[in-house]
Design a protein that fits this description.
Length: 238
């Protein structure tokens, strides 16, 4: 079939127009994906990000494998609040790797984090509760912390000094238990320094916290927990 010159021109113009429209559509989709990816990762980097509770350290309130949203927006730590701490040993990953890890982890409920080693637990973020503030004098008896705030004369239990409602696991070991094993449930008075915070797990019998590490500086406190989003039937704000 032979096309007349003006028909050839018309077909060419239609084909060119369709190709141009398709390329513009593909560009819009590509830009939309890039913008969406950038916005989500900026939010995950600077506004909030998810943390998976990989141990039983915060039971009974936060079960193992729970997913919690935390915010790094600067807030002054208060008694009883739940914070995620900086890992005690950091992996030297690039910005792109860190962002990809957070992005994949968020959309897989923390089931997959391709660049995070779960074998090295000291490289994982840890949720702990702020139990005492700089200047406090503290001691522990039978897994309950007693606190004398700076410039005060009397000791109070950790629960009397905060409006945050939380439960702790203080099941006492058997009477014949070797108390030199595990994390101590009692220690004598100590006074915290000007930049020292004492953090505790809610599972007092079998978790690591300031009883083992000692008080931590403000720089070790990374972000405040504010929302449990998994399991779905346990969703709640702190």
């Amino acid at each position: 079939m032979v096309l007349f010159p003006y028909m050839k021109k018309q077909v060419y113009e239609i084909s060119y127009s369709l190709k141009k429209e398709r390329n513009a559509k593909n560009l819009r989709i590509f830009l939309y994906i890039i913008i969406t990816f950038t916005v989500i990762n900026l939010l995950l980097q600077f506004v909030f990000f998810p943390v998976k509770q990989r141990s039983i350290s915060m039971q009974p309130d936060i079960q193992k494998d729970s997913c919690v949203l935390v915010t790094p927006i600067s807030t002054k730590p208060k008694r009883g609040q739940l914070f995620v701490l900086n890992p005690r040993s950091k992996q030297n990953n690039s910005f792109i790797i860190k962002v990809t890890d957070k992005f994949v982890g968020f959309f897989t409920l923390q089931k997959i984090k391709p660049f995070t080693s779960i074998a090295n637990m000291s490289s994982m973020s840890e949720l702990r509760r702020i139990a005492a503030l700089p200047g406090d004098t503290i001691y522990m008896k039978d897994y309950i912390l007693y606190v004398k705030p700076a410039n005060e004369s009397f000791f109070y239990t950790e629960f009397e000094l905060t409006n945050v409602k939380y439960n702790i696991d203080v099941v006492l070991p058997p009477t014949d238990w070797d108390r030199s094993m595990g994390i101590s449930g009692s220690f004598p008075e100590i006074k915290l320094g000007a930049d020292e915070y004492f953090v505790l797990s809610d599972n007092r019998l079998s978790s690591m916290d300031s009883r083992l590490w000692g008080p931590i500086p403000r720089s070790s406190i990374l972000a405040k927990a504010f929302f449990v989003y998994y399991p779905f039937n346990k969703m709640r704000l702190f």
